[in-house]
Batch of 3 targets.
Target 1
Amino acid sequence: MRNRRQFITAATTVNLLSIAGCAQNEGVGRQAPDPVDLSGEKTDFQGGMVIGDHGGPNGQIFYEETEPKPRQGAGVEGNSPDNLAWFHTLVYGLFPYHFEMRNSGAQAAGIYVTDYSIVDWELSSDTMIMPAPTSPETFADATELIYVVDSDARGGMGSALLPFSNSNDAARFISEYNGRTINYDEIDRTLISGIRR
């Protein structure tokens, strides 16, 4: 096992909380609620799988004036704050779900994903699966992050988008595990379909 991050400094944690508290709706400018804890057997809105059990980045989306409905997900109802949907994968869950919600007129008040710049993570050479942390402080505003795509590392369901708040961390990751970086605005249905293939 190779440990890529030895510790999380207090300054980084304070910075993350600042970013999370100021997360904005996609261009509208309203303050978003803070990310929530996704532990406790919460299940994915898109696929019904338990959050944190499968590896790779997790995500959560707060919608304005729209209550998302789970397609699958025993244990979701009654445990979710109003207007919040959560996911155990970005490629197979969060982004496809969000594209559909947006097409139906829903607006995001805040989108949060795992930030691997602030997570203590390891990659095993035999599985190459990134961890799937669930605590609120491991999430950051998805619209502000850099994403590594086409790397050798994987999420719980295969190829993954891996978010970083620090561009140097993303560059170091690519130097060791290959891939390229993209911004949030470059993530669309075509990109997601290509990753899933």
Target 2
Amino acid sequence: MRVLAAMSGGVDSAVAAALAVDAGHDVTGVHLALSQNRQTLRSGSRGCCSVEDSHDARRVADELGIPFYVWDLADRFTEDVVDDFVAEYAAGRTPNPCLRCNEKIKFTAVLDRALGLGFDAVVTGHHARLDGTELRRSVDAAKDQSYVLGVLTPEQLAAAMFPLGGMTKDRVREIAAERGFGVAAKPDSHDICFIPDGDTRGFLSRRLGSQPGPVVDAATGRQVGEHDGTYGFTVGQRRGLGIAAGDQRPRYVLGIEPVTRTVTVGTADLAGVPAVRTGAPTWTGRAPQLPFAAQVQVRAHGAPVACRVRPDDGGGLLVEFADQQRGVAPGQSAVFYEPDPDRGDRVLGQAAVTAAVEREAGVRR
């Protein structure tokens, strides 16, 4: 097959490209230039898409003897991922930019272009498995990325290759070292790639400006603090609240209201929710018949929990948790997995959380 290897400059995509070559495919490497300031140097494990990353990807391609190109998708990335990220926070939601990048950039813009150029598939260094066209978790649970791939469609999965899903990250580094790749010991990227200093609140403040408002205690209705912008908070947050609640019990963000600029906080006993509502779902395979039982994961690094999924108004879903969950924020994706223990690593699909079902009257979430 003619295969396009997306090469970020990291060890995972380097080994994925190498394995595609070993499998006998006709491989071409491509590095995605996503940053509008690519000359900014990478700092350890923070950031990506720097000029260093491009050079690292090119060196690996040269060692593999495959053609290599750089595709400038910075404007598309800014519009579909960065601007969306800012808009979601401004609206009081908590987006996942990695999921959005996979949806809009790597498996829409890139895959569409690859297929248009006559390639049969795109290979990436994601830690996830494909069983035919069924998406499954990686064997390395600590590195599993199936959550951020849960937005992919059956057509996209049919043209994707994830050769690392059956091995651990340690094995990936071993393969890179055996081949003499200079990226074998390169640190993994962490945090949000377009915020290399890790200061999300500062990034949003520079984009949105100061928007002061009150922090209110849910139990008493009393103002217990002030903030410079609701975009600096996410539901479930405990640290950095800057409040004086009057006792030593920890407070959590329970709700965010950007119109009135109000952040509502409360104690742990108020933080759990029994269910959430979502927008319209997307499915990685045939749509399951509603209602159905599943496991659901609501954060990229969260633990799955048993749930019951029912139809809701407007084409969305009502997701009822077996156990109350904390920190489920609007904007996050609820990714559904098969409930059968023997197939519980299979991804069914996802839907964006729109609201938590109220447990306590008067608490807006």
Target 3
Amino acid sequence: MTMLPIYLGLAIALAYLPFTNTPASWRRSIHKTLPLLLFALAGFLTGSPVFLVAGLFLSALGDFGLSRDGESAFLYGLSAFALAHVLYIIHFLALAQMPLWDVFSIAPIPAIALLALLVSTEIWLAPHTGPLGWPVRIYVLVIGAMGLSALLLPFGISTMGAALFILSDLILAIELFRMREDHPSKLLAGYLIWGFYIAGQAMILMGGITI
């Protein structure tokens, strides 16, 4: 019974897929917010770590913000996700029982590759973000730190979940700041962003439940 919210959240997320590229509406916002609210409920009911549950809840708030139009709503969503990543960092560090910088001795190749990706955003992303430049830069640093903290764990579902979350945000950054509105890959990008995001969050949740 405690796992029912996960299955329901996944079903709602799957049903939302055709709406990923539709105009903002209250129906779309509610539909987009529900899966992570249900994931947070599942985490609570299964006694998952409090930082994980809170991170899932903040992600739901982030989903709501990004489902609305306007720069203010975008900044609200971005801030909620940044805080969610901070909580995921605390969650992963608590599981790993070691400081973040140890990742460069435990998993040096993926850690350096991730660091290189973060640095590269100054070339292909930052110049195209306009007045959102610094908020985006801060978010990139926070999600990068989340990825590094996940690499401290033995390779498994939590690590894969964090990787899919980062991949989703990477595609989102390209879609928002580098694609024209009439780009032929816009529709596919929306599907990939949502699919990788939901899969990543579900894996992060399941990793917290099974550990």
